[in-house]
Amino acid sequence: MTASQRITALPNEPCSSVGNLMKFISLRTAPAAAFAVALTAAFALASTVLVPFAHAEEVGSVNTNFRITGSDRVVVEAYDDPLVQGVTCYVSRARTGGVKGTLGIAEDPTEASIACRQVGAIHFSGPLKQQADVFSVSMSLIFKALHVVRVVDTKRNALVYLTYSDRVVSGSAKNSVSAVPMPAGTTIPLK
To answer: What's one Pfam family the UniProt record gives for this protein (predicted)?
Structure first.
């Protein structure tokens, strides 16, 4: 017997017991709950799989607030630009500690700072878009993310990196920017 058959098999009169009421409600809301779980999984998958983002390498951190269950801290992470070899961006951001931070369900503060530098010879893996997301990192369980966007400044022959955060509903105006000038004679290939 399917869930829809069980729903129609329930009497149309008021439920006589709490157990019957809970059974009736759970059968009615099961498809909605399944949809919500599937949608959440799709968002999580899309944010980590669909775009070939660079992976963070934690360079260091400092504790800002001691907690027995895990301190709040500021971390410095290095991201190598996946399409521009020889450019690394260093992002510093707050990470919430405590039980929620340990379990990965805390919402980290929106503040972040970025500094991008040429760390080796510049090589392009291919033509770059005028503007593209380069890295993204989750700042809460699902709904908040920190982004780094690369913008090509052709007039000044430089790569500009902008960091900001967003939520499903609204973002934050807090941002930070860094620029990497290209060596003389190096032109940036555009799509």
So the answer is: CreA
pTM reported for the whole predicted model: 0.64
Give the total number of structural domains in the chain: 2
Query: Is the Cβ–Cβ distance between 95 and 108 less than 8 Å?
Result: yes
Q: Per-residue pLDDT tens for 6-25?
A: 434 444 444 444 455 445 44
Q: Which domain holds residue 154?
A: 57-181
Radius of gyration of the chain (CA): 24
Instruction: For residue 21, give both structure tokens.
Output: 């009421």
- Gap between the Cα atoms of 183 and 104, Å rounded: 41
- In sequence order, the 6+-apart residues with CB closer than 8 A to the CB of 150 are 81, 84, 128, 131, 132, 133, 134, 159, 160, 161
Torsion, Cα of 149, 153, 156, 158 (10° steps): 40
Do residue 87 and residue 140 come from a single domain? yes
